[in-house]
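Problem statement: downstream parser choked on a complex file, so we are re-checking the raw output for the magnesium ion run. The parser issue turned out to be on our end (a line-ending mismatch), but while we're here, posting the original submission so the record is complete.
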Amino acid sequence: MADQIRVLIVDDIPETRDHLTKLLGFESDIEVVGSAASGSEALTMAGKMLPDVVLMDINMPDMDGIAATEKLSAEVPAAAVVMMSVQGEADYLRRSMLAGAREFLVKPFSSDELTASIRQVYTRERDKQTRMSAMPVASGTAGGQSPVTEDGTHDGQIVAIFSPKGGVGRTTVAVNLAVAAATELGKSVVLMDGSFQFGDVGVLLNLNPKNKSIADLVPELEAGELESIDTFVINHSAGIRVLLAPPSPEMAELITPSGVKKVLEALRKNHDLVVVDCTSWFNETTLAILDAADTVLTMLSLEITSIKNMRLFLEVADQLGYEQNKIKLVLNRADSSLGIRVADVESSIGRKVDHTIVSDGRSVVYALNRGVPFFLSNREAQVSQDILRLAQSVAGERVTSGAREDTRKTAQKKSLFSFR
Ligand SMILES: Nc1ncnc2c1ncn2[C@@H]1O[C@H](COP(=O)(O)OP(=O)(O)OP(=O)(O)O)[C@@H](O)[C@H]1O
Ligand SMILES: [Mg+2]
C-alpha cells in the first residue's frame, strides 16, 4: 500500500520487539519493515530500508538510543525517531530531543499512544517535507498559511504574549504555543525573546546563551543590507526557530524600538508565525512589539493584583487605539482555587476571558527544569490541549489538510500495554 507508514523497531529485548511487531501488525496503515537488536544494527538497517519512523529503545548495551538517534539524524534524516523510555529516565527526554528524536514515549504506554505517536510524527515529517519543497514560494491556497508577498516572502502573523504583571506564565505559554503551532499546525514559527534584560526563553529551551541573539542582529539590520537572518536565528529540535534575548542585561540598551520593528519585519517575512515573549512593563521596545503585533495575548491569573493591572492595561490599550479584537485575554492556571472565580474576573475587568489554561504544576515545572517544552513531553495533558486550542485560535488550522485521523484526542485509552 502506497501510504503505509514504514516502521523499524529497535530494542535489545527480543520479546519487546516481537510484542511491538505483533501490536503494529493490527494497524492497516503501519508496516513493520524490520527490527534491530542494537543501535549499530539499526543504523545499517535504516540505511537500507529507509523507514519513515524508527521506534527506538533508549537503553541498549552497545550504542544507546540517544547515540543511535544522533547518528541516524545525520545518516538517514528522513527517518523520524520515536524514543521509548521508562519514567525514571526523564532527563533523557531532553537529550533525546536534542539528539533529534521527534517524540518520546514513556513506558508503560498504551497501544493507542504508540500508534498515535507513530502516525503523528509521520504526518508531521511529511508535512515538513512538503513545506520545505514548497519554499520559498509557499502555496497561498493552503488553509491558514500566511499570505505570500510579491517578492515571494511571507507576511507572517505576529503574536505578542504580554501581561501587565510578572510571573503569570508568559514565557511558558509563548514557548509551548510556538511548539504547538509548529508541530501540530505545520506552521513555520520563530519565537523571539522580547524580554531583553532577563529573557528566559533560552532556559526553557535549554539553549546555550553563547548563541547569537537579537543584540547581534539589531546593529546589522540598522546598518542596512543584511542578506539573511539565518545566522542569528537558532533552529531548535522542537521544530521552531528562536531569536534569543541578549546574554547580559546591560546589552538590552542596544535594542532600540526602531531596531525591534526591523527585526519583527524581517522575521515575519520568513515565517508564518512570529511569537514574542514580552516583558511585563511598558517601555519603548515593548510598545514597539505591541504596536507591530497582529494579536496581543494578554495573560492574567486569578490574583487580585493581576486583575487590577489588567484593568489598567485595557485602559492604556484603548488609549493607544488598539482594536478590541487585537487583544485577547488568556487566563492562566484558571482552575486554581484561590477564592476568585472567572466570572468575578470578567465582571471586574468588564470583558470576557477569551482563553483559559489549566494549572498543571507537575507537567509545567517538570518540563521547565528539564529544558523541554511540556507540549512535547506531555502532549496528552490537559494543559497541552489548552495550548493547542489557543494555537488553533490565533494561528488557524493546519497548513496541509492531510486526512489525519486525530487519534491523539482519544481520551480513553482502552488497552494498556507495558513493555520495558
Ligand atoms: N499553567 C500552569 N500550571 C502550573 N504552573 C505554571 C503554569 N504556567 C506557568 N506556570 C509556572 O509559573 C511560573 C512562572 O511562569 P513563567 O516564567 O512562564 O511566567 P512569566 O510571566 O514569563 O514570568 P516572568 O515575569 O518571570 O517573565 C513558572 O514556575 C511556571 O512553571
Ligand atoms: Mg518570562
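For whoever reads this later: The CA atoms of residues 130 and 400 lie 9 Å apart.
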